[in-house]
Amino acid sequence: MKPTCDVTVVGGGLAGSEAAWQLAERGVRVRLCEMRPLKMTPAHETPLLGELVCSNSLGGDRPTTPAGILKAELKRMGSLIMRCAEASRVPAGNALAVDREVFAHLIDSSVANHPNIELAREEVTEIPEEPAIIATGPLTSAPMARALAALTGEDFLYFYDAVAPIVDVSTVDMTKAFRANRYGTEGDYINCPMNEEEYAVFWKELVNAETAPRHDFEEEQMRHFDGCLPVEVIAKRGEKTLLFGPLRPVGFEAANGGEEPCAVVQLRQDNEDGTLFNIVGFQTNLKWGEQERVFRLIPALREAEFVRKGVMHRNLFVCAPKVLDPYLRFNGREALFIAGQASGVEGYMESTAMGLAAAIFAYLRLSGRPMIDFPPETAVGSLLNYLRTALPKSFQPMNVNLGIFPRLHGKKIRKRTERCEAYAARSLATVEKLIAENKGLFPDQ
Question: Per DSSP, which regions of 206-335 are E strands?
């Protein structure tokens, strides 16, 4: 019997949707399996492909940041997720933030209506026949997690991720807040300052607040990834720790009457209409009642309506340097790939990048062409190189950052923005060379 597809993709998040789209655009017949809504995760609320469950920000959008470099590369390589993000963006200063619902609907519609994609709403509990891409993400179901653990011969590594609360902006007291981007008099963020006395009370109540009990899907010992710590965990590291993190007060003097507050809580737009704002850096595992009690100690949020509470959920990833080859394949398997956060990267766009890369590797394998290497001078290549070369004993998920790029040659550039721009120029030149050397593999300009 003739197979109904050329490649199976498991998981309809950002990485799986990107992988399925990239393959389909190259003429490959894809079967994309997504278990929602048949089986929901602890964090998802809809059956839509590409639903964002944490922040609605996709990170920096300018080449003066590593995240901006990655976005420029993905855009040049024809990323579906980047196209949908730009079509659903909301104001967020120098970051790319999206209206969650519009963003997910665009991805869902694009994938479901592609003639080369069969969307199957079913849970996959075993490793599918090759060729296949596993993109089940950080919220991989228990049966698939067990199957992956058996496949790799290693225990699954894990960390816990937390989601920040969202408030109705009309209930924020703007007499006790101001709009500004950091180091500017105007901007897209709503900033909620606190004086020393207010911050001291807030900190004391935060560190003593009651956290939510663990769910059935969580393990006994919780391990947090430092890039997404719950705000109460950061606070417990010291009374002033938050003042050097999400509540740092610097850069607001011009918009705050020339004074530097003791602490500043920032709110960022979360939907296209600008009616919902999330509390930046306030991922949390506090009980819902405790969240309202403690966060309303912030003067501007005393009467705030919390339309979505923060939640905690489990994230899973493989130890990439031990179980994967340089092309995101499981060791010893010719056509079984992994993509997204489960591959060992951290972040929405990083996950998307691994989906795109896995699709290209799978396409090359199907078409009998030799594998290509994404140069480490590119953001995509630097992430792949990190997964290959990181020390297994201390392996943790990685965001794109200048530290994983090869160093620039010549005179050291001290200003970070200028240094990023130099990395960006090298990156995009390298991407153009990669595209030119692989005719027909990437979309034309």
Answer: 263-269, 276-279, 306-308, 312-317
What is the mean pLDDT, run by run of 10 residues, along the chain of 445 residues? Answer: 77 98 98 96 92 90 93 98 98 94 98 98 97 94 92 76 87 95 86 97 98 59 64 96 95 79 95 90 94 98 92 84 96 97 95 98 97 98 95 85 90 87 97 96 85
Q: Are strands 336-338 and 132-134 parallel, antiparallel or unpaired?
A: parallel
**pTM for this predicted structure:** 0.84
Distance, CA of 163 to chain centre: 12
Q: State the DSSP string of 328-360.
A: SBBTT-SSEEE-SGGGTB-SHHHHHHHHHHHHH
Give the 3-state secondary structure of residue 193: strand
Distance from the Cα of residue 378 to its chain's centroid: 19
> 3-state SS of the chain: helix, strand, coil percent to 5?
35, 15, 45
Give kind and range of the element (H or E) at residue 200: helix 196-208
